[in-house]
Amino acid sequence: MKVAAQTAFSALLIFFFSCASLFAEAAQAPAQRQQPEFIRQGQQLMREGKLEEALALYRQTLQALPLSLPANIAAGNVLDLLGRSDEARKYFQKAIDIAEKPEQKALANRAMAMSYAFEGSCKKTVEYEQKVFDYHVTMQDFFQQGEIADEAARVCIDDGDLDAALRWYKVGHDTGLKEPDIKPARVDLWNFRWEHAQARIAARRGNLAEAQDHVTAAKAILDKGTNPEQAPFFPYLRGYLAFYGQDYKTAAEELLKANQNDPFIQCLLGQTYEKLGEKDKAIEFYRKAAAATAHNPPAAYAVPFAKKKLAS
Q1: Residue 128: how many CA atoms within 13 Å on its side-chain side?
Q2: Among 49, 128, 179, 181, which one is least packed by beta carbons within 10 Å?
Q3: Is the pTM higher than 0.85?
């Protein structure tokens, strides 16, 4: 039963969240086969930039199926992207209330956590991520506990609560390593993430020498070759440090080597080009970031930030 519940929860997470996890790409195809038709149609509308039409579709579905967990969460997701988080949370609360299984309630709580992330609230995000974390404690799923802790930490660092971010990143690292019979590659993954996080936090605090020590440690782990899919996160890290070190030319060079589909990277590039006085390039990247349709920490930070930049 425990394995079945974990499998169901993982499918639901892939279903609603665009994740950069180790296994997201491999799981994408089976997850898509589980999607209801209205979700597929809504996602297509969102890819086309038709958020209001996607919302209308989900609301129409809810008129016929008011207790649909996917429809309530999907409607809330779109509303967050539209900047209407107060309204979004009514749908997420409905999803929490109607969830019959623990994994469904965890999914709804995670959606609520991300809704608060769209408003930059570390405190409220953590409140709901704790509920998801606790669910994975009951399942003895140490990897997912680490994932959720890191997700909460990511929201907190973007919110500027560096103490909370460091605390949750440490929880993620230490909990992830408790996985029974953990493989060496998984140990390297958690250690790489931990060095990556400490480097960013040190950079945000202006401790560039300390940040560089963590960059060196992260590179040594990456060079072991056990987690090649993490390679794009290293130029992101170097670009991040260069940006907060006010070396904007290097920041642009490094960030352009990172994942160009990540709205946070797009947003940071926009900020970098703005610092360099290249307004057109800044606007180009802000537009890309503002068009993100994921409901995860990178989009939660980038979409509202980029839209404010474009409006100004």
Answers
A1: 23
A2: 181
A3: yes
Contact 200, 268 (CB under 8 A): no
Residue environment code for 90-110, b if the CB has 16+ CB neighbours within 10 A, otherwise e: ebbebbbeebeeebbbbbbbb
Q: CB burial class (10 A; 0-12, 13-18, 19+) of residue 1?
A: exposed
Tell me which residue has tokens 């994994």.
103
Q: Could you count the other beta carbons within 10 Å of the beta carbon of residue 44? A: 13
Which residues have C-beta within 8 Å of that of residue 206, sequence separation ≥ 6?
244
Instruction: Tabulate helix, strand, coil % of the chain (nearest 5).
Output: 80, 0, 20
| 31 membership: H or E segment, kind and range | helix 24-33
Residue given tokens 């782990």 in the structure block: 221
Label residue 34 by pLDDT band (50, 70, 90): confident
> How many Å apart are CA 273 and CA 309, to the nearest integer?
13
Q: What is the pLDDT of residues 148-191, one digit of tens each?
A: 999 999 999 999 999 999 999 999 999 999 999 999 999 999 99
Whole-angstrom Cα Rg for the chain:
19
What tokens does 170 get?
């440490």
How far apart CA 16 and CA 35 sit, in angstroms, is: 10
- At CA 15, angle to CA 11 and CA 16, rounded to 5? 130
Distances (CA, A) of 174 to 43, 146, 170, 179, 285: 36, 8, 6, 10, 36
Residues 6 or more apart whose CB falls under 8 angstroms from that of 70 comprise 15, 16, 36, 39
The residue whose two tokens read 């790489």 is 192
Residue 84 structure tokens: 């209407």
Q: Which two tokens stand for residue 71?
A: 């429809």
pLDDT tens digits along 19-32: 333 223 223 333 44
